Amino acid sequence: MINPESILSFEEYKNQISADPTSIEFALALDKIEELQSQRDEFEFPTIESSGGTKSIDGDLTDKCTYLCGHSLGLMPKRVRKNIAEELDSWSKEGVHAHTSKRYGRPWVSFEDAVVPNMEKIVGGIPGEVTIMSSLTVNMHLLFCPFYNPTPTRNKVLMEAKAFPSDDYAVVSNLKMRGVDPETAVIRMEPREGEFLLRNEDIFKIIEEQGHEIALIWLPGIQYYTGQLFDIEKITKAGHDKGIMVGWDLAHAAGNVPLKLHDWNVDFAVWCTYKYMNSCGGSVGGAFVHSKYATDFERNRLVGWWAHKLDTRFVMDNKMDLIEGIDGFRISNQNVLSSTAVAASLDVFAKTSMEALRARSKVLTAYVEFLLKAMPNTSKNVSIMTSSNPEERGAHLSLTFADGLIDHIFQLMNEHGVVADIRRPNCIRVAPAPLYNNFEDIYKFVRILNMCDFTPNN
Ligand SMILES: Cc1ncc(COP(=O)(O)O)c(C=O)c1O
């Protein structure tokens, strides 16, 4: 296992390596450094051709594409094929007995046991705080139920103005269902005029001034559009100091940056597993409820039979006996095939640690930033919306371009097998995923971007 302490900063590597830092030799030298090795071989990569590309500068169309889209959908771990084939085998050979079969070590009735210990390490939860269930937005609704408790004088939700649409819809629809008017009860924080990122001091000011009316703070760990990493610990504490529940959407943070949800005293959090956790589209979601609520059985909750203790669940006497902790917030039996993908992916995470991944990730992202600023064309034509402070961002950088250029730039990237994503009117998001991207990927991406014609209206 790689010791995170052995990983230097990008600047230190730059000083150590004799090659020109804008050359391919420099990228290849970084890729050879022992402590910077990735888990790349654990993943299946689309080729340039299968990702829709038609051109290769100095290789061939069957080469791996340059995949920088792990913030949207992670690549498929090779183990997923094997593990899913095993579960299909179990289903085929054992039918209903697959629920209790130990044939492949993952009895379906307690499938979460194959996932949760690894997941706890990734998000910093202790046993009983973390589970897999439903999906991200569904889990928002499920956990707003116990943790958003409006009263006539304290019913507001503090969130960001540019929240991911699903978060906005979930908050608004949940408030309506509770008889609270979202028009007056949702406080949407905007960055200052001319800025993209929310400042901590502005968040703390609102909490200080309006905290007595706020029932819930609902924020993303990392903002999907700007890549801003929020100070989860400090914001949670500021909320608690004013008696506010604090919940987090960790879609872009889980598996990207180390989290310490238990130590940070976060009330609840939800995330998806298909981005940095490399499971399939729409895969089962992750959820956290702090252990301080483990036996708070009086709290409102929407549950089903999977919240009932396992040893008496099948007695079917319709007398709910809730599991302590997060599993007591569940509804349905596990989606086996989807959870299998998560289990396989988290086995790859278990080969390393979030601290080592984060240290490597900082070098990767700093290299993207360095190359964009060092190459002649990109240095003049690409702006980075994401913070330049590594402590205020994860893996992903949001790049912006002059008006009217983005479709042409994105097309050129796609033609050359660079997979990222576009957020019109003028943003392209790129993320070197800490588990599988290497420095050569970044070199290839910036070289292609540097070939673009940035003349307006071309
Ligand atoms: C920040 C954020 N919140 C919510 C969602 C919605 O996720 P789901 O469709 O899994 O509910 C996404 C999806 O990408 C997201 O990025």
Automatic annotation (TrEMBL):
Binding positions (pyridoxal 5'-phosphate): 136-137, 164-167, 249, 252, 274, 305, 333
Any one GO molecular-function label of the UniProt entry: pyridoxal phosphate binding
This protein's record includes keyword Cytoplasm: yes
UniProt pathway annotation: Cofactor biosynthesis; NAD(+) biosynthesis; quinolinate from L-kynurenine: step 2/3; Amino-acid degradation; L-kynurenine degradation; L-alanine and anthranilate from L-kynurenine: step 1/1
InterPro entries on file: Kynureninase, PyrdxlP-dep_Trfase, PyrdxlP-dep_Trfase_major, PyrdxlP-dep_Trfase_small
Subcellular location field: Cytoplasm
Cofactor(s), names only, from the UniProt record: pyridoxal 5'-phosphate
One Gene Ontology CC term in the entry: cytoplasm
SUPFAM superfamilies: PLP-dependent transferases (SSF53383)
Catalytic activities: L-kynurenine + H2O = anthranilate + L-alanine + H(+); 3-hydroxy-L-kynurenine + H2O = 3-hydroxyanthranilate + L-alanine + H(+)
Hydrolase among keywords: yes
Pfam family, one: KYNU_C
Enzyme Commission (EC) number: 3.7.1.3
PANTHER family xrefs: KYNURENINASE
Its job: Catalyzes the cleavage of L-kynurenine (L-Kyn) and L-3-hydroxykynurenine (L-3OHKyn) into anthranilic acid (AA) and 3-hydroxyanthranilic acid (3-OHAA), respectively.
HAMAP family per UniProt: Kynureninase
Family listed: Belongs to the kynureninase family.
Oligomer and partners: Homodimer.
Name assigned to this protein: Kynureninase
Biological source species: Furculomyces boomerangus
